[in-house]
Design a protein that fits this description.
alpha/beta, Restriction endonuclease-like alpha-beta roll fold, six-stranded mixed sheet
Length: about 200
């Protein structure tokens, strides 16, 4: 009895190959992140594997870690961000997969922000870089309908200083009290300065 020469398709292997491709293209950084947020009464340690995409600077990656700490939660996780236009940099989902919090780092355009506002319960944008004021002037009037949106500006000197803390394996402490934010490594400390551009209503 002859066996069929057909080979069954292997969709799972194709997905794994795509994941391996992304892993090869990205550099993985590891961080032990201790968060003491006295303003939110949140205290926890997080073990993070951070994929730094080839198009991402170390400064942006460190800003992502800071933003993770500012929103730390047991269900918060890094999403694909730069690697996938359908996902943010960081998100928090409930047990059903519904997006509770969608977080962008950088200067997304208004279409991406408004689309996120329709998909998530809460949307947060953390803008940084020397061109933030120009970006905000161009985009602010287009976001007035977004009631579940908050936009924060990270001061340029904060983003630049965070890069000093970067190592392939990091041990970081973030302390938040009365609006003051500090990120510390074993050898350095950075005070993070942020200012609100929009507060969710």
């Amino acid at each position: 009895m002859r066996r069929s020469g057909r080979i069954a398709p292997l969709p799972a292997l194709r997905a794994t190959a795509a994941e391996l491709f992304m892993a090869i293209k990205s550099v993985i950084y590891k961080a032990t992140l201790q968060v003491a947020d006295m303003d939110r009464h949140y205290y926890a340690d997080h073990s993070l594997n951070i994929a730094c995409h080839p198009s991402e600077t170390l400064q942006r990656m460190m800003v992502r870690i800071l933003v993770f700490a500012l929103n730390a939660h047991e269900q918060l996780e890094f999403a694909k961000g730069i690697s996938d236009s359908d996902e943010p940099d960081i998100w928090q989902r409930d047990l059903t997969g519904a997006i509770e919090k969608w977080i962008e780092v950088g200067q997304p355009d208004e279409r991406r922000i408004m689309k996120a506002c329709g998909r998530a319960g809460e949307v947060m944008v953390y803008a940084y870089g020397s061109s933030t004021d120009v970006w905000w002037k161009q985009i602010a009037s287009k976001l007035t309908r977004a009631k579940n949106l908050a936009v924060m500006k990270i001061e340029p000197e904060t983003a630049e200083a965070l890069e000093r803390l970067c190592e392939r394996t990091m041990h970081l402490q973030v302390t938040i009290q009365d609006g003051e934010i500090w990120m510390r490594s074993a050898s350095d400390a950075v005070e993070a300065k942020l200012s609100p551009l929009i507060i969710a209503s």
